[in-house]
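TICKET: design request
STATUS: open
ATTACHED STRUCTURE:
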């Protein structure tokens, strides 16, 4: 079996075949002697779209770091691999997959064939850009050896009429003794590979990591170590402030720099510390910490509206785990002291 994975699936959806069925596909192709066809145009796109995707995430990460800085009142290192490092990392990932890869150089002949197809408005052309890139991919498929069985995984409209690949594409490939099946979902291919190979030991296969067999990592793509969370204050049994800058943090909770009182941080920290505690138990714990249930409920709803917390119906959950891990220690001493008091009461 030969698999062609378009850029939107290879990069955006599966993160270079590392998630959402991508890893399973790599393992199954190794086990069944399958291959991944990567035309040169796709290889270029994998790299460029990886750089673009990281650029987009960089903005989100920077915003999260800014939020952490205002929460903790301390600066954070915003270092994120630059475009050069991402490019090197993507190329390294493609080298790791070379044992599976069939390449197809971008020759003058291939460009001419794709150009003619685009000018004649034959699938997989599109109304927006004449589908030249998709035409290059398809011409690469048509140059595979006779008898090839191909799965084309793509979300590009040029290949599909609704959810089905255009029948004229299937027929064109059949005339060259090439069988092509199209899908928009990589897990469909994974399922078909499993079905076609019932004797595979799937449990043993999952224990083998074929996906990162590559030369030594390029130093530039190693991300910086995260800044350490502040250590929790020691439990004293009293109402000691749990962290040096809590007063400042509490007044800078919102990334929009809207100021609130210290109860906002406290409620957020309790939610983070107890994780999936039910709402009733959460409000009871906060009541023991002198936060009235109606006040705690209002604050939790405000945190939900601000995007710090998600309301699941029965629980509140901190959306950004890294923020939760940094907020929780600010109330650890208070919570431990409260639990100690409760234990002593129960022992009496």
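STATUS: resolved
RESOLUTION: sequence designed for all positions
ATTACHED SEQUENCE:
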């Amino acid at each position: 079996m030969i698999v062609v994975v378009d850029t939107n699936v290879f990069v955006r959806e599966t993160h270079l075949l590392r998630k959402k069925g991508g890893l399973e596909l790599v393992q199954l192709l190794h086990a069944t002697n399958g291959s991944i066809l990567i035309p040169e145009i796709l290889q270029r796109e994998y790299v460029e779209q990886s750089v673009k995707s990281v650029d987009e995430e960089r903005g989100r990460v920077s915003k999260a770091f800014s939020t952490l800085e205002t929460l903790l009142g301390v600066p954070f290192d915003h270092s994120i691999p630059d475009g050069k490092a991402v490019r090197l990392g993507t190329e390294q990932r493609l080298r790791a997959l070379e044992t599976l890869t069939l390449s197809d150089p971008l020759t003058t002949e291939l460009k001419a064939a794709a150009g003619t197809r685009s000018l004649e408005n034959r699938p997989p052309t599109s109304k927006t850009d004449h589908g030249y890139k998709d035409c290059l991919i398809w011409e690469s498929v048509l140059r595979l050896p006779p008898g090839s069985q191909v799965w084309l995984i793509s979300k590009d409209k040029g290949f599909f009429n609704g959810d089905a690949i255009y029948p004229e594409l299937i027929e064109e490939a059949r005339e060259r003794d090439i069988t092509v099946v199209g899908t928009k979902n990589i897990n469909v291919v994974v399922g078909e590979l499993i079905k076609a190979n019932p004797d595979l030991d799937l449990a043993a296969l999952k224990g083998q990591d074929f996906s990162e067999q590559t030369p030594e990592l390029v130093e530039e793509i190693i991300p910086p170590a995260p800044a350490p969370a502040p250590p929790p204050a020691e439990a004293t049994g009293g109402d000691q402030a749990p962290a040096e800058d809590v007063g400042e943090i509490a007044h800078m909770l919102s990334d929009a720099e809207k100021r609130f009182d210290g109860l906002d941080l406290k409620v957020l920290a309790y939610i983070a510390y107890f994780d999936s505690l039910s709402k009733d138990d959460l409000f009871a714990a906060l009541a023991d910490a002198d936060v009235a249930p109606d006040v705690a409920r209002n604050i939790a709803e405000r945190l939900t509206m601000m995007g710090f917390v998600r309301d699941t119906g029965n629980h509140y959950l901190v959306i950004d785990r890294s923020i939760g891990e940094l907020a929780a220690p600010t109330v650890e001493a208070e919570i431990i002291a409260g639990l100690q008091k409760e234990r002593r009461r129960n022992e009496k």
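CLOSING REMARK: The two ends are 72 Å apart (CA to CA). Strands lie at 2-5, 35-39, 101-104, 149-153, 160-161, 164-165, 179-183, 309-311, 316-318.
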